[in-house]
């Protein structure tokens, strides 16, 4: 018997960048909690594969293919969902890229690309979702931040700025939308085992630094974000707004 506080039955969750990595893990966790998941990604074949695998596992899943950096594609995707009678109850703004280079060598185009993908997309998709959530008086928005929502690391300035922006965008969403029945919160993953971090994991010095700097003495697993995602997507968090939950093995808690 599932706990109604954490039951997502009857809800639909759109998770951007959910064909792999953290987004895939969170989408799977939301599906296991009862939600229908809308899988999004840039690679149609990978998205279709993820949908197939979710359905094979007995979950409700559909593909919603759009490029998160294209406002036109985002708007038309929501219009298509409207036409299909599909309401997005839960939005997880997860899609993001990393680009590591010292700022003195960084091209402005690369800076802009990271900010467009990681931050502006969350605003555009959040706005489109919120218009509809406000009309229904209900919605859950979960923006994916980072340790770099709080602290900077050299050579990842655009990512850091985008994730710092995600924290305050989440608070801005709470400021404007909480009275309309929307809870907007964020999750700040620590150093997780993902494709994006594989180069760091494979670097013995960086691997040793993460394990030494993290009280848990290890990298995080994508599935370890599911608890925070289900909490923020469920009735259990109906009075939580504008917060960020760091799932980081304790890294931000200690010097
Ligand atoms: C890096 C990493 C980090 C992690 C994560 C930490 O280059 O330092 O990519 O950005 O991915 O964001 O919370």
From TrEMBL:
Keywords: Oxidoreductase. InterPro entries: NAD(P)-bd_dom_sf, Sc_DH/Rdtase_CS, SDR_fam. It comes from the Bacteria. The keyword Oxidoreductase applies. Pfam families: adh_short_C2. PROSITE patterns: ADH_SHORT. GO terms for molecular function: oxidoreductase activity, acting on the CH-OH group of donors, NAD or NADP as acceptor. PANTHER family: 2-DEHYDRO-3-DEOXY-D-GLUCONATE 5-DEHYDROGENASE, SHORT-CHAIN DEHYDROGENASES/REDUCTASES FAMILY MEMBER. Belongs to the short-chain dehydrogenases/reductases (SDR) family. This is SDR family NAD(P)-dependent oxidoreductase. It comes from Bosea caraganae.
């Amino acid at each position: 018997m599932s706990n109604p506080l954490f039951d997502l039955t009857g809800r639909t969750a759109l998770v951007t960048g959910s064909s792999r990595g953290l987004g895939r893990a969170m989408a799977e966790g939301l599906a296991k909690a009862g939600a229908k998941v809308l899988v999004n990604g840039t690679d149609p074949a990978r998205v279709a594969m993820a949908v197939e695998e979710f359905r094979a596992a007995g979950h409700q899943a559909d593909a919603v293919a759009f490029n998160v950096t294209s406002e036109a594609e985002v708007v038309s995707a929501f219009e298509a969902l409207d036409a299909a009678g599909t309401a997005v109850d839960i939005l997880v703004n997860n899609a993001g890229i990393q680009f590591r280079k010292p700022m003195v060598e960084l091209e402005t185009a690369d800076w802009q690309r990271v900010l467009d993908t990681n931050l502006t997309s969350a605003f555009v998709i959040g706005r489109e979702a919120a218009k509809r959530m406000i009309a229904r008086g209900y919605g859950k928005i979960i923006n994916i931040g980072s340790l770099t929502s709080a602290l900077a690391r050299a050579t990842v300035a655009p990512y850091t700025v985008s994730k710092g922006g995600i924290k305050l965008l989440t608070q801005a969403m709470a400021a404007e939308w909480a009275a309309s029945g929307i809870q907007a919160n964020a999750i700040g993953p620590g150093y997780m085992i993902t494709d994006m971090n594989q180069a760091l994991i494979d670097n013995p010095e960086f691997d040793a630094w993460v394990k030494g700097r993290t009280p848990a003495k290890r990298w995080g697993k994508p599935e370890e974000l599911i608890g925070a995602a289900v909490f923020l997507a469920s009735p259990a968090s109906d009075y939580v707004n504008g917060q960020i939950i760091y799932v980081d093995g304790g890294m931000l808690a200690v010097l």
